[in-house]
Design brief:
Blueprint: H1 32-40, H2 50-71
Amino acid sequence: MAKKKTTKRKASKAKKTTRKAPKKTAEMLLVGSKVKNAIRAHKMNVAGDAAEGLNMVVHWYIDQAAKRAAANGRKTVRSHDFVVG
């Protein structure tokens, strides 16, 4: 009986994929259509990431206002806590 030839299979090269870290996005606090309409009222075009950028600014303002209220010994954020300057 003849021996079977054994063939070596080439090891397949696994593709190295670089995974990007997921973007840290904050919860959307704004209504996208309202943001777009407000910008369009100024006769301007709206980019797809405009609402997300504004949302990040709003989160920053909230963070700053909460820090200011805490620094003043309060647990209540008031309207004047949003004044920066």
